[in-house]
């Protein structure tokens, strides 16, 4: 579940869930059973021969979507696309640590709506205006789409400036673009307050991409969109050799059932609130903590050497990272400067686990 053991039997508390992938817990019995039973029946078929597990999973997944998001799809476009400076998706990223020196096509980046480090702080209108000006002065006035994480992951566990997506989506749609929400890390109830990250911003996108926690570690991903956009599929052949794999589909369906049965969204809200409270108390004690942010079990702790200047504590972060591992705690690192602890554990993480994490951080920081 939320614990891992090395070859000597030492226990580690997993506070990163295999990079936000193990949503229900390592080796969750319900998911293991679903995968094993399906493997006994049929391990692989392509979408040439549809299997009921594919349909059952697709129906269960789309039932979780609001609005008119009902179909899995691929939507073609030939115009400019807009993303953020610090978005994670490899083909669209503005992060230099992930970007290769090759042509990226018509991808344009706008400012990151980061309340802590962003140019405009929490002023969503200012960030949205920058999107509008970029379209006006940096394009033909028409764009294909706008893709953004609804709650940044690798970029440093950043919750967007409140109200930003609603303003940005309106601007993009007026320019003819579709709005794409990346829910790879923030979906499936992890934020606690909502099932999907985009709901925290009060919007409904045109396309939603999802992966990681969708399969609890299985190699699974999905795209959900509207019937209108999905109709474009009729113009071309859409095929993937491993698409709709019955084993992964059975596992994905089991994940959805576990999240509902164990009320993981509510659990994330409860444990997350306790953990944030404890982390903020830790922030008052240790000057190295510049910011504590997030909601549910999608949290970030940014470390700095100077709170006023927000100077990234790069070396200290690495040192603490290793000390925590020695203490039996595994956390993630992120942010442009690698100075943010990403706390996104399996969603079975308990309040006792949260206390152990914070106590371990306190002990490690006291020894700096």
From TrEMBL:
Tell me where in or outside the cell this protein is found.
Answer: Mitochondrion
Protein name per UniProt: alanine--glyoxylate transaminase
Which InterPro entries does the record associate with it?
Aminotrans_3, Aminotrans_3_PPA_site, PyrdxlP-dep_Trfase, PyrdxlP-dep_Trfase_major, PyrdxlP-dep_Trfase_small
Cross-referenced Gene3D superfamilies: Aspartate Aminotransferase, domain 1, Type I PLP-dependent aspartate aminotransferase-like (Major domain)
| UniProt cross-references to CDD domains, sorted A to Z | OAT_like
The GO cellular component terms are: mitochondrion
The protein's predominant localisation is: mitochondrion
Q: Name one GO molecular function term.
A: pyridoxal phosphate binding
């Amino acid at each position: 579940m939320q614990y891992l053991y090395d070859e000597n039997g030492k226990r580690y508390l997993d506070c990163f869930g295999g990079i936000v992938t193990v949503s229900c817990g390592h080796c969750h019995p319900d998911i293991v059973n679903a995968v094993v039973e399906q493997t006994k029946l049929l391990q692989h078929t392509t979408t040439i021969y549809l299997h009921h597990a594919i349909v059952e999973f697709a129906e269960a997944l789309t039932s979780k979507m609001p609005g008119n998001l009902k179909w899995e799809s691929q939507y073609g476009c030939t115009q400019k696309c807009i993303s953020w400076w610090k978005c994670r998706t490899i083909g669209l990223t503005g992060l230099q640590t992930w970007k290769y020196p090759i042509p990226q096509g018509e991808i344009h980046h706008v400012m990151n709506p980061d309340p802590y480090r962003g140019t405009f702080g929490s002023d969503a209108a200012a960030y949205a205006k920058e999107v509008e000006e970029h379209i006006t002065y940096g394009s033909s006035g028409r764009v294909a789409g706008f893709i953004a994480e609804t709650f940044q992951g690798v970029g440093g566990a950043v919750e967007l400036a409140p109200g930003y997506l609603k303003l940005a989506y309106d601007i993009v749609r007026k320019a003819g673009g579709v709005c794409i929400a990346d829910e790879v890390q923030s979906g499936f109830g992890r934020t606690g307050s909502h099932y999907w990250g985009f709901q925290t911003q009060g919007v409904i996108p045109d396309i939603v991409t999802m992966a990681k926690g969708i399969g609890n570690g299985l190699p699974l991903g999905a795209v959900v969109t509207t019937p209108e956009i999905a109709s474009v599929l009729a113009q071309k052949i859409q095929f993937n050799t491993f698409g709709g794999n019955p084993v992964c589909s059975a596992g994905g369906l089991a994940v959805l059932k576990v999240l509902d049965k164990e009320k993981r969204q509510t659990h994330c809200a409860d444990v997350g609130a306790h953990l944030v409270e404890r982390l903020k108390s830790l922030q008052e004690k240790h000057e190295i903590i510049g910011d504590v942010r997030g909601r549910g079990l999608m949290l970030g702790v940014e470390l700095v050497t100077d709170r006023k200047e927000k100077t990234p504590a790069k070396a200290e972060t690495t040192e603490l990272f290793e000390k925590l591992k020695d203490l039996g705690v595994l956390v993630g690192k992120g942010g442009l400067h690698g100075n943010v602890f990403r706390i996104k554990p399996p969603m079975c993480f308990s309040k006792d686990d949260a206390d152990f994490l914070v106590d371990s951080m306190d002990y490690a920081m006291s020894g700096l």
